[in-house]
């Protein structure tokens, strides 16, 4: 399996002299697009209805659980990144920690799958899930992940999204009340001006 992982990586990894366009796109998908997750959740919370806000809380819980599972996997089994074993070309800096599963893709796909599993937000979830594909490509192309790291991320993301949706009755009510109280305290003046929903 590891030889297949290496073969797929070398097929998708950047050549020694990549084109400027490919490098720019890969860097955008691999490093910048992830910021759309907190932006989406923040806008959804600030401007959305109660239903949207609760969906954002479930998505946040999914992302946090996914990253926690990844940390446990990394502690139990350390898998080197390509540059740690001198494989392929690495075009962005990265710390030499365990590669499996990809934290970037786990966070992205947990939010995507969380929304996809909620009927009223399915189209947004599908769109986000599809955008995870170029993110995965970018991380491999730039040399910081193996293809199997992405398979691990999708597995953890599906599990996390399913668990947090199934268990929402345990935490969503208290979590929503706490988040709403913090929201009113932080944005009271903007709420009064009508710039932010109450």
TrEMBL record:
UniProt-listed InterPro entries: PAP2/HPO, PAP2/HPO_sf, UPP_Pase
UniProt key word Membrane: yes
Domain Phosphatidic acid phosphatase type 2/haloperoxidase: 54-165
Domain of life: Bacteria
Transmembrane parts of this sequence: 20-43, 55-78, 98-117, 124-144, 150-168
Keyword RNA-binding: no
GO function term, MF aspect, one: undecaprenyl-diphosphatase activity
Keywords from the named record: Membrane, Transmembrane, Transmembrane helix
Gene Ontology, cellular component aspect: plasma membrane
UniProt-recorded name of the protein: Undecaprenyl-diphosphatase
Organism encoding this protein: Undibacterium oligocarboniphilum
